Every structure is written in structure tokens, then in C-alpha cells.
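>> received
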Amino acid sequence: MTFQKTMPLASPVLLIFLFTLLTSGGLVEAKTDTKNSAATTSVPAKKWAVIDGFRSAKFGMDKNRVKKAIGKDFKISSRKIKLSKNSIEKTEILQVTVPELFPAGGASLVGYVFGHQSKKLIQINIIWGLGATKKVNGQSVVDAANLLRTHFVKKRYVAESMLVNQRLDANKIIVFRGADKKGRMALLVLDTPKALEGESPEDAAKKVSLSLSYILKPNQPDILTIEEGMF
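>> returned
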């Protein structure tokens, strides 16, 4: 597999952890070359990204409207949409398996997360590879990561939020992270576990996964929390 330089469905709490870690000095962010700024002033400015959901499913929709959006986007019967609950965060998730979102990565698992209090759509998580299918094509998943990164960087994001190809640990890479003008975020994480002792590279490639999350409020998720002073 080649990754150009450049998980189970993530919960809001996990994504807050990633966001906090990557903005607290834990990793070095890409810097802008100010020396050549004058030479690039004539380049047309990128259009601002608008992160308002995923396809027909928009932040703020209730479960019934999201089910209709899923049917519209993927031509999938409502009987194939599974409802689950996060017992800790007290959120609800609609999940659906999509055979092919686009010609890379293989089958994907798409999860729509609804807030604890609002009962409205607050996050969408998409997984390719391990966790989405039993037949993982590791190279295809990595190809999907590269294609998605190239797609996302065509738009403009809040400078402080931007990360491209930053390693989180020995296995995970933040392929892309960016927030739009309203603070809504897109986060793309690639997990390429190393081969264990006695494990072949082919078997290790079957554990590759890619997760893409669209998040309404990265720093203030609508989940169950313990208020100050309760304990």
C-alpha cells in the first residue's frame, strides 16, 4: 500500500479528544510560507467550505427526515436502517451500510448521530475498511483517503483548524481536518495497523480503516455530561 505524503464509528467524545490533542501542541501543524505570500496574492482565493451535513442529510434534522434523506441518497429501504443508542453519551444513531459511496474504499458504514437533548442530527460518521466490511481492500481504503484529502483541500477553512497528514500515533494519521466559518468540522482519520509478529502484510492490510466525520459543534457536543457542582 502507498499513502501519499501529503475505527468503529467515532463518538463525539472521541472527536473532542482528537481536536483538543491536535490544538494543544501535541502535534505540529502545517505552517504557511509567509516569505512567498506576495507572490501568491494573484492566485484566486478558494471558496469557503460549507459543512452542513452529508448529502441530503443536514444538521438539525430529526430521525424521520434523516431516514427520508437516506432513502433519497442511497435508494435503501427504511427496513435496512438500524437504530442504536450510546448508553454513555445518551445519543441515538441511525446506521446503514452502503455498498459503494464512490469508486474507492469499498463498502462503507454510515452513522447519523442525534443529540441527547435536541434529538436532532449533530454528527455523521462514515467508515471504510475494518468495521464496515469483512472483505477489506487495504490499498483501496488508502486510495480513498488520498482522494478525499485532495477533494477537501480545494476549499478554504479556518486557518487554526487546518491539519493535513499529521500523525496521531504509530498507526493513525489525521489525513485532513478543517472547520468552516461556522465552526462545523470535517475530520478524516486513517488507521493502518502494523503487522503483528507472525502476521503477513496481507493480513495486516485487512485491518486498515478510514473514518470521515462531519461535526456540528466539535467543542460543545449535545451529549450527556455531568454538570459542575453535581458531585
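>> The longest helix spans residues 138-152.
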